Amino acid sequence: MKINFKTLILHVLILSACIKQGEITSFVKVNDKKWLVSDSLKYNFNNIDIKNKYYSQIIIKHKTDYYFQNLILFVNVNDQLDTLNLTLAKKNGSWIGKGVGDTRYYSKKLDNLTIKDTKSISIIINHAMRNKETNQIKELQGISSIGVKIIKDN
């Protein structure tokens, strides 16, 4: 099949118009879908325009066999530590996130984290899940990847 150059340019322009300006997204895959308590997920965003204010959003990609209703995270942003308790499922067991098959995507705006006056952002995320017996879950299963989106605040 032969593609016309003008048609190719038109498709590129249409696709580029669909990408939101002022957004940067980065995903880190969890190795073998087993997130060890010692595994840190690291994100670096550089060349941020310091004239603008930004906010962030976290995106959790998980499987429907994830055992827990929530996910507790330690989030370190430019050496400021915060703890997040994300509710992934309702009390009746239905997932809050969207998806098909056995994969769900859950996203949440991080209200208490605004980013300004910096050219680079360093984010480190660790899971902080606990249980009654061992007080620390050393290996968390069912989480596929964690994404962080930095969005220009208009």
Which labels suit this protein?
single chain; four-stranded antiparallel beta sheet; globular; Jelly Rolls; 1 helix; 48% strand; mainly beta; 154 residues
Assembly annotation: single chain
Largest sheet: 4 strands, antiparallel
Shape: globular
Secondary structure tally, helices: 1
Uncertain ranges: 10-19
Describe the 3D structure:
The chain has one helix spanning 5-18; strands at residues 23-29, 34-36, 41-45, 54-63, 70-77, 80-87, 103-115, 121-127, 139-141, 143-152. By secondary structure, it is mainly β. It has a single domain (22-152), classed as Jelly Rolls. The strands form three sheets. Strands 1-10-4-7 form a four-stranded antiparallel β-sheet, with no helix packed on it. Strands 3-8-5-6 form a four-stranded antiparallel β-sheet, with no helix packed on it. Strands 2-9 form a two-stranded antiparallel sheet. The longest helix has 14 residues, at 5-18. The termini are far apart.
Quick synopsis:
This protein is mostly beta strands. 9% of the residues lie in helices and 48% in strands.
List the topology elements.
Elements: H1 5-18, E1 23-29, E2 34-36, E3 41-45, E4 54-63, E5 70-77, E6 80-87, E7 103-115, E8 121-127, E9 139-141, E10 143-152
Antiparallel strand pairs: 1-10, 2-9, 3-8, 4-7, 4-10, 5-6, 5-8
